[in-house]
Write a structure and sequence with these properties.
70 residues, alpha+beta, two-stranded antiparallel sheet, 2 strands
């Protein structure tokens, strides 16, 4: 498990690289990633493609990237 300073460093780098950008395409690499979503990985991929990343944040050691509502 990474230490908190490493998580924050990763968050900063991802925020610089991703905030404000549009997800051109999405590929779910493992079915468990979408296990709580109806339609499975294919549905998740299609719903995320074309959405804009607003920011990259964290809650403890978990990273989160809120998306626009389009």
């Amino acid at each position: 498990m990474p230490e908190l300073p490493e998580v924050e460093l990763t968050r900063r780098h991802l925020h610089e690289a991703m905030a404000g950008r549009v997800l051109a395409s999405v590929r779910t690499s493992h079915p468990r990633t979408a296990r709580h979503n109806r339609g499975g990985p294919t549905e998740v991929d299609s719903r995320l493609a074309g959405r804009r990343v607003l920011a990259v944040g964290r809650k403890g050691k978990f990273l989160a990237a809120p998306l626009d509502d389009d």
